[in-house]
Amino acid sequence: MVGMFFAYFALVSIAAGVLTVTLRHPVHCALSLLVLLMHVSGLFILLNAEFLWAVQVIVYVGAILVLYLFVLMLMNLKTDERYFHSSALYIVGPAGMGTGYVLYLLLGSPFDGVKGDAPAAAVLQDGDTYAVGIKMFSDHLLQFEIVGIFLLGAIIGAIVLAKAPKPLDTERERL
Amino acid sequence: MIPLSAYTAVSAVLFMTGLLGVLVRRNFIIVLMSVEIMMNAANINLVAFSHYLESMAGQLVALFIIAIAAGEAAVGLAIIIVVFRGKISTNVDEMNLLKW
């Protein structure tokens, strides 16, 4: 059962990723990115990370993707005739071969390592949100604050960049 | 039980899709969307290793990556709007404001 869900989420997210890259119209790309994000959040559910599932749906789908769609609607782009780069064919071949080699390495490796202190049973007992919260506000508090300051800087930067330029002509006429 | 390598394989394919999108597409907004695909691939990897190695650190880093993706989207789209205002185009080949 879990394997079936994993196959569904994995295949649909890969297909949506390919569609995001290949579709012609930018709004269609944004909508297939929506499908990708929702199915990646499904993969998070399979990995017992339900807090990340909620954050993915709220922040990625609810905020970031809506921001993309706003900008796309604002610009009202016409679709180009050539929407791929002219040397695209020379890039796709080596990229496919590289991916094949990486997949060969990944699928053959056992991936065993030192276990941490949060086994699945302990996480499921209190819930993933509890475990993430305890860990974040004890061991990773400094990173949390840094991310807060980063977001403040990003907000100020976005406002400063996107602000309409001041009309300088009236000032110059006065001089 | 799904092996960890299955998750890493999905993540690798998604990452390569995003990388190809960055290299191949000519629309700046779609290039940014491809960067989001790459960040999602990294998130899948982090959460999968966090689950299989029984440690919460991976999920925390994935949360921070989501926050950074939000900031990147805001600043990137602001830059797109500024460039679009001057050139009426979002084609990456025609952006040469910083080139000398």
Describe what this molecule looks like in 3D.
The complex is a heterodimer of chains A (175) and B (100). Among the domains of chain A are: 1-77, NADH-ubiquinone/plastoquinone oxidoreductase chain 6, subunit NuoJ (Four Helix Bundle (Hemerythrin (Met), subunit A)); 121-165. Chain A is built from 8 helices and no strands. Chain A has helices at residues 2-22, 26-46, 50-75, 88-108, 120-126, 128-136, 141-162, 169-174. Chain B is an all-alpha fold and 100 residues long. Chain B has helices spanning 4-24, 28-52, 57-87. The model of chain B has no long low-confidence stretch (mean pLDDT 88). Classes of the chains: A mainly alpha (175), B mainly alpha (100).
Task: Compile the SSE list and pairings.
The complex is a heterodimer of chains A (175) and B (100).
Chain A: H1 2-22, H2 26-46, H3 50-75, H4 88-108, H5 120-126, H6 128-136, H7 141-162, H8 169-174
Chain B: H1 4-24, H2 28-52, H3 57-87
Helix pairs in contact in B: 1-2, 2-3
Keywords:
heterodimer, A: 175 residues, mainly alpha, Four Helix Bundle (Hemerythrin (Met), subunit A), extended, B: 100 residues, Helix Hairpins, 77% helix, 0% strand
